[in-house]
Amino acid sequence: MAAHRHHHLPDLFRFFLVFIAALAIGFGVPSFWLWIGSMYQGAAGETRLTTEGAVIVFAGVILSYLLLMIAGATLSARQRTGLRQPDHWNRSMRDEPRRRAPLTPTEAAFVAGAILATVAHLIWLFTFAGSPLPVG
């Protein structure tokens, strides 16, 4: 029974690592770049969003995501062992269908981050955003 319990410990640990990475990806990266953009605008004396501030935030988020995906792909490639499997389009039709490969931790973190960010945005939209329409 103890061996069975230890088998799930790495799965639970991996789940928490993916969850923390998803929070960092979904909320940490955009929040960091919003803070950088606000520092830039505050130093310029602006009190509203400028084009330069928006470009800094947007480009920073996109660049950060690209760098994180490259880093995750590099780590995943180092963990893979064995021969390279042929692509699905390059296999014989007689080959048996293969099971779909599980998500890598990087893929799981990005998927979970997108889901968490979407759910948080929907909660904000329907509960806290208020109506943009004029009242009475």
Layout: helices, strands, pairs:
Elements: H1 2-44, H2 51-79, H3 105-128
Spans of at least 5 consecutive residues whose pLDDT stays below 50 are none
Largest sheet: none
**CA radius of gyration:** 22 Å
Number of helices: 3
Classify the secondary structure makeup into a structural class.
Answer: mainly alpha
Mean pLDDT: 79
Q: How many strands? A: 0
Helix content: over 70%
The fraction of residues assigned to DSSP E strands is under 5%
String of helices and strands: HHH
End-to-end Cα distance, whole Å, is 66 Å
Molecular shape: elongated
Descriptive overview:
The protein has helices at 2-44, 51-79, 105-128. It has three helices and no strands. It has a domain at 23-79 and 103-126. With 136 residues, the chain is mainly α. The model has no long low-confidence stretch (mean pLDDT 79).
Can you tag this structure with a few keywords?
3 helices, 71% helix, elongated, 0% strand
Give a short overview.
With 136 residues, this protein is mainly alpha-helical. The protein contains three helices and no strands. The model has no long low-confidence stretch (mean pLDDT 79).
